């Protein structure tokens, strides 16, 4: 006898990247930041008083909201702090989409979206990206034609790292009649020369929510803290009705506020990641991998297609993944259409990247 709802019984659940406990593993599989959080975060943690845990935390994480509002030049009513970006995605779905109503995605994208849509029993409408991961010329119209109540666009795109422009997003926001979520989990790694900033869209459109996380740019994946930026009509129902009563804890509120306030220090690490990203992309292309131009902290690398030892590039990609793993280097392999001949490689430290490249080179030279 199963007590699960039929849609829960049908679903398989989210499969997270491997999280090995050995510190020796070179971990380039879940897009974590290779550098530690800044000293300001360490100080906030050291200064946190255990006795303060006796009380419940500030319910809305207002101190953090003040810092975020100032940073983005919005009001605190435009900000909702959440227990990781994953909680914000869940809140968006449960607040704005009835079971049975559709949710739209650019395909491929973050594999948690369909899982959370399944929990809410929402059909998923997938719109395929072009072969180079750009959106088709009719993407906005196609998205609206799905009739979806909510749509997710991850930008820079995961798993390719490609960045779509603010103008493109503006066109989608104005054409789509549902709520448009722009998931900016990796935004901190975008080259600052591009001057990409979507926050102005939330004043132009009342159907846009931007997702930001402290997990990647701020090296705080273990903390579980993210936030949404949006018009008040979208933020208020999540903040005052559907959120858990104390969805972010006191320690994470203090650390996330310290981290965001000290973003100038975190930005030193973002620049190092960008430099390594260029270097690794160049080295991979010398090994005849093809990488999409990434503005993120990872590269989606298509394996060389003409290795005579392997019948298909898919077999070579699996072999590289497995041999790297056997040698203590984890990258991400997606057993999914269009991704089976590719590896998604998180940018690590210069030393980690060098080890990765050295191993790949040795596999490609000899079997
Ligand atoms: C595209 C994308 N969005 C959102 C998230 C959520 O991140 P977190 O829950 O750690 O804030 C991730 C995490 O990997 C991601 O890749």
Please provide a written account of the structure.
With 367 residues, the chain is an alpha/beta fold. It has 2 domains: 18-35 and 265-365, Aspartate Aminotransferase, domain 1; 39-261, Type I PLP-dependent aspartate aminotransferase-like (Major domain) (Aspartate Aminotransferase, domain 2, 3-Layer(aba) Sandwich). The chain is built from 13 helices and 12 strands. The chain has helices at residues 6-10, 39-47, 62-72, 84-96, 112-119, 139-145, 166-175, 201-204, 232-242, 250-261, 263-286, 313-326, 350-365, and strands at residues 26-28, 79-82, 103-107, 124-128, 150-154, 179-183, 208-213, 226-230, 290-291, 298-302, 329-331, 342-346. Strands 2-8-7-6-5-3-4 form a 7-stranded mixed β-sheet, with helices on both faces. It has a 3-stranded antiparallel β-sheet with strand order 9-10-12. A two-stranded parallel ribbon has the order 1-11. β5 (150-154), α7 and β6 form a beta-alpha-beta unit. The longest helix is centred in the last third of the chain and has 24 residues, at 263-286. The radius of gyration is 21 Å and the shape is globular. The model has no long low-confidence stretch (mean pLDDT 96). Bound molecules: pyridoxal-5'-phosphate. Pyridoxal-5'-phosphate (PLP) binds next to α4. Pyridoxal-5'-phosphate binds at residues 31, 84-86, 110, 154, 158, 183, 185, 213, 215, 221, 226.
């Amino acid at each position: 006898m199963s007590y699960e709802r039929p849609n829960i019984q049908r679903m398989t659940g989210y499969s997270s990247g491997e999280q090995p406990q050995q510190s020796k593993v070179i971990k380039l599989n879940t897009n974590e930041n290779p550098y530690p959080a800044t000293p300001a975060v360490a100080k906030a943690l050291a200064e946190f008083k255990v006795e303060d845990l006796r009380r419940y935390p500030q319910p809305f994480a207002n101190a953090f909201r003040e810092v975020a509002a100032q940073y983005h030049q919005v009001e605190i009513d435009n900000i909702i702090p959440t227990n990781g970006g994953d909680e914000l995605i869940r809140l968006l779905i449960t607040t704005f989409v009835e079971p049975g109503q559709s949710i739209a995605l650019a395909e491929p994208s973050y594999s948690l979206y369909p899982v959370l849509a399944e929990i809410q029993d929402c059909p998923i409408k997938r719109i395929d990206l072009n072969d180079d991961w750009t959106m088709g010329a009719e993407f906005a119209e196609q998205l609206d034609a799905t009739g979806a109540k909510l749509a997710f666009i991850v930008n820079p795109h995961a798993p390719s790292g490609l960045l779509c422009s603010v103008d493109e997003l503006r066109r989608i926001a104005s054409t789509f009649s549902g709520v448009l979520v722009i998931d900016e989990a990796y935004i901190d790694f975008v080259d600052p020369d591009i001057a990409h900033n979507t926050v102005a869209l939330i004043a132009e459109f009342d159907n846009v929510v931007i997702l930001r996380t402290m997990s990647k740019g701020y090296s705080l994946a273990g903390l579980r803290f993210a936030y949404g930026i949006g018009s008040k009509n979208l933020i208020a129902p999540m903040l005052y009705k559907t959120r858990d009563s104390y969805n972010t804890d006191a320690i994470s509120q203090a650390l996330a506020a310290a981290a965001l306030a000290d973003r100038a220090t975190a930005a030193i690490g973002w620049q190092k990641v960008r430099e390594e990203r260029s270097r690794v992309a160049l080295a991979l292309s010398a090994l005849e991998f093809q990488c999409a131009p990434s503005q993120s902290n990872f590269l989606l690398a298509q394996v060389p297609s003409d290795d005579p030892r392997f019948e298909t590039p898919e077999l070579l990609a699996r072999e590289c993944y497995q041999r790297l793993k056997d040698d203590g280097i984890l990258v991400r392999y997606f057993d999914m259409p269009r991704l089976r001949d590719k590896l998604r490689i998180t940018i690590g430290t210069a030393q980690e990247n060098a080890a990765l490249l050295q191993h790949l080179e040795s596999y490609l030279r000899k079997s």
